[in-house]
Amino acid sequence: MSAIIRLKNINKTYYNGAPLHVLKGIDMEINKGEFVSIMGASGSGKSTLLNILGILDNYDTGEYCLNDVLIKNLSETRAAYFRNKLIGFIFQSFNLISFKNAMENVALPLYYQKMGRKTRNKLALEYLDKLGLKEWAHHMPNELSGGQKQRVAIARALISKPQIILADEPTGALDSKTSAEVLEVLKKVNKTGMTMIIVTHESGVANQTNKIIRLKDGVIEKIEDNSEHKFSNFSVENIK
Amino acid sequence: MISLLHEILNTIRQNKMRTFLTGFAVAWGIFMLIVLLGSGNGLKNGFTSNFGDRLMNVVNIWGGRTNIPYAGFQSGRRIYIADRDVKFTADEFDRDINFVIGNVSLGSKNISNGAEYLTSSMTGVSPERIIVDGAKIAQGNGRFINDLDIREKRKVIVISERAKDILFKNQPAIGKLVNVAGIMYTVVGVYYIENRQDATSSYIPLSTAKIVYNRGINLSNFTFTLNENIYDKETNDEFMSGYRKRFAQVHQVSPDDENAMWYWNRFEDYLQMANASKYINIAVWIIGIFTLLSGIVGVSNIMLITVRERTREFGIRKSIGASPWSILKLVIVESVFITTIFGYIGLVCGVGITEFASQFFQPSSAGSDSFNAFLNPTVDINIAVQATLLLIIAGTVAGFFPALKAVKIKTIEALNNK
User: Fold this and answer.
1) Is the CB of residue B121 less than 8 Å away from at least one CB of chain A?
2) Residue B3 belongs to what H/E stretch?
């Protein structure tokens, strides 16, 4: 299996007031089709890591290769291009555009690929159908439940056929039942061969993934193989 | 582009009230600009109409009284204009003038035809006078004074259409006799002056006037027209000072005596008017643009707030692949869109108002010396095009800085913006 994500000695320091060394030499590889979770307490650097993986933030030293392309010192335009082509995002707070209906939200990435309105809306309807939201296509986000919103967001992440899906606490704003549904969807997506990385602090969520990367104070504490899903669905990690 | 407009309409629909208020400021600005420009044009057109078809390059000369003792004469001597003035002017200044004609003003005379009568100022003139006054004679209304009238000292008269209406009602006037204070004249022509329906002056041949009214060689005044060698203030001033010097010599008055020769130079009036309308124009543009500017600042201000409110949305757009350029475009086009649409509304309203107002400022037709201060206060298509261009530029400028601000916010910060 080829590594789709390759990180070599990634360092990141924030300079807001006192310098804060958030990532202290991260090395890791994620292969195509893997279902990975990144766990860690708040402040462990997991969000920063996800932002760097998503080309939303840059890093100071090291090397990050995505799909064998070195992602370093990109211009904003180039970064936007890669985000559009290679990465699908799923956020804790869904990040749907409030004045666009479900279909238009899903179709938005294709707008930035200069696809015509009719074609992209048709495609968006197909993806909503796959996620069981066809009847809700013309509803505005505030008319949808949390689970529905997140499924719209998943459809939006998938529509540009990215190389990886990055999910930042995808169930953080959902109740347990809806969380389970959303996780099922994510699992199904992963089964189609999509590489998926989830950042979470819920071990229940992490336990659904096949590999758990534990971050602590900006370094990788350990990488656990979880293909047997032996972790408890109920314990909450890192509360000490 | 259609997709982009769709995106923008989508956001505008979100904030109808705000968009309307913003747009209103712009519409008002451009409306005021158009109304002001229209008013400026009205003033200018009013001025111009008062010149009518009369020649712009006319100079009239009268004799005054000397103020300075000179060459043995005491001050207070009256200067008489006579045929020799016409002659020396025609002979010595032919480089700068077209023709010179003498006039004999006969004052107000009663002109009557049977029971109908009117009081009209009468002047003895040369054939060229018709050009100087911008008078016209309609087909079938006879002719003006001609050379034969002058040579044969005919007792003929040219009256105005108004005088003809009073004296002859609907009857033809040509060939009829009129009684001018006891002396009979044959009407040979009926003239009119555009925008001057009230004109009543009558003209008789200069030679006839001299004989009948016993004027000898004296003239009341004389008139000459400047040719193309006199085209601006400098050439005009130079000519006038040269002329004044020669006039002083001929009449044996001090060259410094400003009171000996009175003159009225229509070309100077014209230059002043041209100058005045230039300044009116500049002032109107300045005021108009400042009015518009406050509208633009309003748009810019609102766009800044909009950008602030939409920070998170821009973050989302960036995270799914919107380039900085596309965000910049989104904001600027929205701004241009609002300014142009509302600006156009203001433009149409402004043009509508000026066209409507122009109905009320028709050329004056009553009163003997009426003056058009305001006429046809409208703007032409060039102004509308210029204003439209101005709007597009203004919209771009108004949107540019807010757009730049939107672009500069980092994506993660934008995403975390609540």
Assistant:
1) no
2) helix B2-14
**Collapsing DSSP states into helix, strand and coil, what is residue A105?**
helix
Name the superfamily (CATH) of residues A33-55+75-225: P-loop containing nucleotide triphosphate hydrolases (3.40.50.300)
What are the helix (H) ranges across chain A?
A: 46-53, 76-86, 102-111, 117-130, 146-159, 176-191, 203-206
Contact A136/A148 with Cβ under 8 angstroms?
yes
CA A111 to CA A122: how far, in whole Å?
Answer: 13
Give pLDDT, residue B380: 75
Distance in angstroms (rounded) separating the CA atoms of residues A240 and A42: 12
What is the residue extent of each domain of chain A? 33-55+75-225
Query: Of B13, B320, B412, which has the smallest distance from its Cβ to A83's Cβ?
Result: B320
Per-domain boundaries in chain B: 2-53+271-416
Note the maximum CA span of chain B: 104
DSSP element (H, E) containing B37: helix B16-51
Q: Number of A:B CB contacts under 8 A?
A: 68
- For A80, the closest of B6, B11, B321 (CB atoms) is B321
Contact yes or no for B321 and A54 at CB 8 A = no
The pTM of the full predicted model, rounded to 2 decimals, is: 0.68
Angstrom distance (rounded) from CA B129 to CA B102 = 9
Rounded to two decimals, the ipTM of the complex is 0.90
User: pLDDT tens across A91-120, in order?
Assistant: 999 999 988 999 999 999 999 998 988 999
Q: Hey, are the CB atoms on B324 and A160 less than 8 Å from each other?
A: no
In this complex, is the C-beta atom of B411 within 8 Å of any C-beta atom belonging to chain A? yes
Predicted pLDDT at B204? 96
CB A187 within 8 A of CB A27: no
Q: Do A81 and B324 touch (CB under 8 A)?
A: no
Distance from CA of A99 to the nearest CA of B (A): 7
